[in-house]
Amino acid sequence: MGLPEISIIFSSLAVSAIQRSQRGIVALILKDDTGTFDTKEYKSVSEVQSSDWTATNLQYIKDAFLGTPSKVIVERIDAAATDYNEAHTRLASKRWNYLAIPGISPADAATVATQVKTWRDVNKKTFKAVLPNIDADHEGIINFATEGKVKGVAEPFTASQYTARIAGILAGLPLTRSSTYYVLPEVEAIQESSDPDADIDAGKLILINDGEKIKIARGVNSLTTTTTDKGADWKKIKIIEGHDLWMEDVRRTFEEHYVGKVNNSYDNQVLFITAVNAYSRSLEGTVLDPAAENKVGVDVEAQRLAWESIGTDTSTWDDQKVKEMTFQSFVFLAGGLKFLDAVEDLQMKIHV
């Protein structure tokens, strides 16, 4: 495995990054007894057979496609199902970006949120979910919290019923823009928030009426508790989408072209590091901030600790020696990335 091959792979991923980001995949879980199948995958709304679904569920699928995702995966479960575990099992091994379960109850939403957190935090998946009115405090959960009415439809929609539309929007947006002020032309009226700023600070994705258009107030997820590891920028859907794109590209390339196929020598680690850093540079200006360093390298501290954990004295090793002393099958890397946010706020001082 030489540098040119892995560099070509990363270069191709960088070139297609924005295109891929705006063609994400929506996963829907729908309760429906019309058919007996488990899963349907659609690349366009024209592929959907109305005879497979109730009128309500058919509309949810159409709502998701309004946001132009690349695909909509629909997991069907029986109308009498008491949980979503069967659908979760099927979705766990598939590739998708945003999950919605229109019509989900508050209790079930909490259970699904826990599952998504586990997928992200434990299994390192890049799954995200749009759930209604849930205080999840997590970057992988979008807490949609607005009710309203669609033009030409008699009954108003609940936040739960509209999650498919929101998931479709988020899956179809490129990383060059955020969902902030995204206009929903089909919405006629909404139950307006009494304090939009407070709702946004509370991690709610809400709709607002600017007097002319109804639009998303700010593209935030449900995260409200920040730490040294998860700063304020982790509250932004756009930022997390960038994190997920970078991590998925690097991890998949490593798994497909390095794991089990390359000796764990320092030279081979350097080849991989060089390729990753070239990939990151290719994303600068679109996904990553070109003013930042955006580099990874051998995690000297972690590698030193690994050797010391088996009783090796590393006190005489300088940092370069530690880097060269690869440890078993592990590749310890560390670094820093700065993801670009969208322009959303203006502060201007005018003196006259």
CATH superfamily of the domain at 16-216: Response regulator
Strands of the widest sheet, in order across it, are 2-3-1-4-5-6-9
How does the helix and strand content classify structurally?
Answer: alpha/beta
Beginning-to-end CA distance, first to last residue = 65 Å
Question: Approximately what portion of the residues adopt beta-strand conformation?
Answer: 15-25%
What is the CATH class of the domain at 16-216? Alpha Beta
CATH architect. name of the domain at 16-216: 3-Layer(aba) Sandwich
Largest sheet: 7 strands, mixed
Quick one: overall form? globular
Reported by name, the CATH topology of the domain at 16-216 is: Rossmann fold
Mean pLDDT comes to 92
The low-confidence runs, each spanning 5 or more residues with pLDDT under 50, are none
Number of strands: 13
As a whole number of angstroms, the C-alpha radius of gyration is: 23 Å
Q: How much helicity do the residues have?
A: 25-40%
Q: Please, how many helices?
A: 10
H-E string:
HEEHEHEHEEEHEHEEEHHEHHE
Organism: Brevibacillus composti
Protein name: Phage tail sheath subtilisin-like domain-containing protein
Domain Tail sheath protein C-terminal: 229-285
Family: Belongs to the myoviridae tail sheath protein family.
